[in-house]
Specification:
- The complex is a heterodimer of chains A (about 600) and B (about 375).
- Chain A has about 600 residues and is of the alpha+beta class.
- Chain A is built from 19 helices and 16 strands.
- In chain A, a hairpin with a 5-residue loop joins strand 8 and strand 9.
- In chain A, helix 4 packs antiparallel against helix 6 and helix 10 runs antiparallel to helix 18.
- Chain A starts with 8 loop residues before the first helix and ends with a helix.
- By secondary structure, chain B is mainly α.
- Chain B has one domain.
- In chain B, strand 1 and strand 2 form a beta hairpin.
- The longest helix of chain B is centred in the last third of the chain and has 34 residues.
- Classes of the chains: A alpha+beta (about 600), B mainly alpha (about 375).
Chain lengths: ~600, ~375
């Protein structure tokens, strides 16, 4: 750095020459130098201050921008991003009159925030005392694991348990509010409701999800926040359901059956008033699906909906209805029932020999395989297939249960003439009790197609007319005669005339063919028979009546008395008026004449 | 050129000094404080008690103190800087040994009926000491390592004591304000680069030390850092403050829910709604417009402070004013950044608005010093 001299020689000499004191030059230069230094220092300082001001300003700009950003954000989005978005809402389910079938109960889940725990080992020990099924060592290990901040301990607590946990006094043990799905009626309507489980769990709530039945089928409706306070109203009638369950389980025990099912349906609206499958389960404590054995023997299996069986003679009603509807026969037409019919190496025969010829009504009353086979033979396989399809018997039963769509009837392929004949008396094709109920409803309600439903509806279904009103009236009379003259004599209930058809189907053996002593007994009934409003299907699996000299397995001894007992009890509950036999007969004659 | 200063050639004397105060700044301070009173009234559910009335009394007292400090010549303050610094350090040491524990940290010192928060006092005395130090030091030598070390000692001693309390927020503020003064004094760039580099290193060390024997911070401080990095991680625990605060801010929108209509704050979702998190109430009730106008008020205060800095040629006064300004800015910036989720949650109040005595008093003393620098600035003969 070149410094400017404070006393430049030239100026000093010049000043001396003029006789002035040269010191003033040095002073002046010193002053200038100081000023210069101050100015540059000032400039530097100002630069730095400017920089600081710039930092401050950018801080303000940043904060202002953030403020604007937050102000522009919808608060709900902020909430969704930052908070748990789990809804524990689930609407109640009630029966047709508003009686609660499924509801929610407030309870608590127990979790631990391990970092807030004062004495994790003691907490684990105390929890082990309250919940004897808990593995204390494992719990302690999870509480003290440094990688864990959060441990779920228990999904549901009873109030007593909650108090006990509270009394441990451990600040790290916390309670999360929960909704618990409760089925106050226990096993009643278990298969209709299905059950619920917890989905995603949060500290403040846990999702309640359906696992089966209506709970699963109506998942979206039940979890819809807009309808959370509006119960889902089913068509089920709780007192009827309880009555049917009680009678059916009594029969099942007395008759040593492996299982049983019952469907009670309104013949005009298609509403299922009662749907029972036994053995059943408690949806409050739904068992795990079985890992061994036949799934169809599991209590979780809904025999009435998922169970597709060869139902035997109950199917004859459709063959007869078709023959009547197509004008091929009248109830009094005489059918050739000489047997057996031979078809290749196959042979169709009756349970007993009923003679060489019978009227159509008699074919039903005596349940002649040969008679129905002859009628179907006259119409052909294709027309039979089309007829049954219109009844919905060739597809999965449509009902508001999650399981329904997953089960399908087993159909012959190809649909040969032989198949047609066996199907006419209920073999070679499977049908579920529910589909059968819908079919019988159509047979007696004037011929209108019925789609079974579990939702309450008060108006009749405006289904397509499948058979004529005349055929329907004839079928009512024939079914009535079956009870009063034929195989279902146990169904004669004073005051409540019942019509129906029995079916005692040999159960198929696992390796082909049929079992010797295993029968699926079915009684498909309608009541009151002169003006049927309700259809009741009862099936008993391998039921045996041992009160006689030899075991009796046919439906007339098992399913019919059971159905009769059910009808006896539910008819007054349904508000049906007892009628005399003459009154019923008069109605039949009037109906037949009207056609 | 000046409207108020009709006589710029001479230093005002006696009562005339009052006319030479930076009155615009005083007006701004009162405006911000009034904003604060309104908010305290609102968070108390429309009641002057328990917060608004005491706050008004304190502010009035603070204003009086500011005037007194402003009228005392700046060279007096320069001469007592060392003493004040020494005293505040002693008080910090006193907290270390005799302090009472409040909310998990030793911060208060009780002397008779007086409850003192020496860490607040240390903020201003550290700035005073630094300014005096650079006024004393030869400007040509200040970038020498020995001189830089001296300045660093002045800053780091109180910082260390405050960290020990532990009060991370205040200690960081002291360090940052001190840094601003050192920067303005003209110390070489390289030192700042070095400090920023080592701070980055320290941050790494803090994270590495977690869970080891030599863990540098307390567990709750780590949790706050975690919660800052991801507030959703623990919405009910350490992240609770910030989540609720951001919900409040978001629900305010542009024009706010209206005075006394804030739900987040009213329904007690927000902790410390009258102190550190009062800004969220403000933003929820008055929206972006309300919060933005507060921002503008603060920006104007800052601008007038910087004008004071620029107009004084007294080195001590200028550096002191820079420190006071930086301190004020940091208070505000850290608090708002914290509630808006831009900074971790450290206990820093919103200046002039949050309920609290010590912070307000110290802030007003700082503004008093700044006013003193303004009144007593050397006038250049024209």
């Amino acid at each position: 750095m070149i410094r400017k001299p404070l006393r430049p020689l030239a100026r000093i000499l010049k000043a001396r020459e003029q006789g002035e004191n040269p010191d003033y030059i040095e002073q002046e230069n010193l002053r200038l130098r100081r000023q210069e230094l101050r100015d540059t220092g000032r400039m530097q300082a100002e630069l730095r201050l400017l920089l600081l001001a710039l930092i401050f300003l950018s801080g303000f700009v940043l904060l202002g921008a953030r403020m604007g950003l937050l102000a522009a954000t919808e608060p709900l989005e902020v909430r969704a991003g930052l908070m748990e978005d789990i809804s524990g809402a689930r609407a109640d389910i009630t029966d047709r009159n508003g009686r609660v079938l499924a509801t929610n109960l407030a309870t608590h889940a127990l979790y631990a925030e391990t970092r807030r725990m004062v004495d994790p080992l003691r907490a684990a020990r105390e929890l082990g005392r309250i919940f004897p099924d808990m593995d204390v060592d494992r719990l302690a290990a999870r509480f003290t694991d440094p990688d864990r901040r959060f441990v779920w301990v228990r999904t549901q607590l009873s109030p007593e348990q909650k108090q006990a946990v509270h009394d441990i006094g451990e600040p790290g043990l916390m309670f999360g509010p929960r909704k618990m799905r409760v089925y106050p009626n226990g096993r009643v309507a278990a298969h209709v409701l299905g059950g619920a489980r917890y989905g995603e769990q949060g500290v403040r709530a846990a999702e309640l999800l359906g696992v089966a039945g209506a709970e699963l089928y109506f998942e979206d409706r039940l979890r819809d926040p807009a309808q959370a306070n509006q119960p889902l109203r089913l068509s089920i009638d709780l007192p009827l359901q309880a009555t049917v369950t009680e009678v059916l389980s009594g029969s099942m025990a007395v008759l040593n059956a492996r299982g049983a099912s019952a469907v009670l349906m309104d013949a005009y609206t298609g509403e299922v008033l009662s749907l029972v499958s036994l053995p059943d389960f408690d949806p409050n404590d739904r068992p795990a699906p079985p890992t061994s054995g036949e799934p169809a023997d599991s209590p979780l299996f809904n025999r009435a909906v998922q169970g597709y069986y060869e139902l035997g003679s109950v199917m004859k009603a459709f063959a007869v209805a078709q023959a009547l509807d197509e004008g091929a026969v009248t109830p009094d037409t005489i059918i050739d029932t000489r047997g057996p019919i031979r078809w290749g190496r196959f042979e169709i025969d009756d349970f007993r020999d009923y003679g060489n010829e019978m009227s159509v009504t008699k074919v039903m009353v005596k349940s002649s395989n040969i008679g129905t086979a002859r009628m179907v033979q006259a119409m052909g396989a294709e027309r039979q297939q089309a007829f049954l399809r219109r009844f919905g018997l060739l597809d999965s039963a449509r009902i508001e249960l999650a399981e329904a769509a997953r089960a399908r009837p087993l159909l012959p392929d190809p649909w040969s003439e032989l198949s047609a004949m066996t199907i006419s008396y209920g073999h070679g094709m499977t049908t579920s009790p529910l589909a059968l109920a819908a079919g019988y409803a159509t047979l007696v309600n004037g011929g209108y197609a019925i789609t079974p439903t579990l939702l309450r509806r008060d108006a009749p279904q405006e289904g397509a007319q499948i058979i004529s009103a005349r055929t329907s009236a004839q079928m009512r009379k024939i079914l009535h005669d079956v009870v009063f003259e034929g195989t279902a004599s146990f169904a004669r209930i004073p005051g409540y005339p019942v019509g129906g058809k029995t079916g005692s189907a040999d159960k198929p053996a696992p390796n082909g063919g049929y079992k010797e002593d295993a029968v699926l007994a079915t009684f498909a009934s309608v009541f009151p028979s002169h003006d049927p409003k309700y259809v009741l299907i009862v099936t008993l699996d391998e039921a045996v009546d041992t009160t006689g000299p030899e075991p009796r397995r046919t439906a007339g001894w098992t399913a019919v008395p059971t159905a009769a007992e059910i009808t006896r009890r539910v008819a007054p509950l349904l508000g049906l008026r007892p009628v005399s036999f003459a009154e019923a007969e008069a109605k039949f004659q009037a109906d037949l004449r009207a056609q | 050129m000046s409207y108020l200063e009709y006589n710029t050639q001479r230093m005002p004397k006696g009562a005339a000094k009052i006319l030479h105060l930076n009155w615009a700044l005083v007006v701004l301070l009162v405006a911000v404080a009034c904003y604060g009173f309104v908010m305290l009234f609102s968070v108390a559910g429309g009641s002057a008690t328990p917060w608004m009335e005491p706050q008004m009394q304190r502010f009035a007292m603070g204003l009086a103190v500011m005037f007194v400090v402003a009228l005392i010549p700046i060279w007096f303050w320069r001469s007592v800087s060392g003493l004040a610094y020494g005293l505040s350090t002693l008080l910090l040491l006193g907290v270390e040994f005799f302090g009472s524990v409040g909310m998990g940290a030793q911060r208060w010192l009780e002397i008779g009926p007086l409850r003192l928060q020496p860490s607040e006092l240390a903020k201003i005395t550290t700035i005073m000491a630094l300014a005096a130090y650079y006024d004393w030091a030869d400007i040509k030598k200040i970038s020498r390592p020995v001189f830089v070390l001296g300045a660093a000692m002045i800053v780091l001693f109180p910082v260390f004591l405050v960290v020990r309390q532990p009060d991370l927020g205040t200690s960081l503020l002291i360090a940052a304000a001190g840094g601003a003064v050192i920067f303005a004094a003209g110390v070489h760039w390289a030192y700042f680069a070095g400090v920023i580099g080592s701070v980055a290193g320290l941050v790494v060390a803090v994270f590495v030390s977690r869970g080891t024997e030599w863990q540098l911070l307390k567990d709750y401080q780590y949790r706050r850092i975690d919660a800052f990095l991801d507030p959703t991680l623990d919405p009910l625990g350490a992240g609770y403050h910030i989540n609720q605060a951001m919900i409040a801010l978001g629900s305010g929108g542009w024009s706010g829910r209206g005075f006394m209509e804030g739900t987040q704050s009213r329904l007690n979702f927000l902790p410390e709604k009258h102190t550190d998190f009062i800004f969220t109430t403000l933003a929820e009730e008055f929206g972006f417009i309300g919060a933005g106008s507060l921002l503008v008020l603060y920006l104007m205060i800052l601008a007038f402070c910087l004008v004071t800095v620029l107009r004084t040629s007294n080195r001590y006064a200028a550096l002191l004013a820079v420190g006071v300004t930086a301190n004020f800015f940091l208070y505000f910036a850290v608090n708002t950044a914290m509630v808006m989720g831009l900074a971790p949650v450290v206990g820093v109040p919103l200046p002039l608005i949050s309920y609290g005595g010590s912070a307000m008093m110290v802030l007003m003393v700082g503004f008093g010093l700044l006013q003193s620098a303004h009144v007593h600035r050397p006038r250049l003969p024209t």
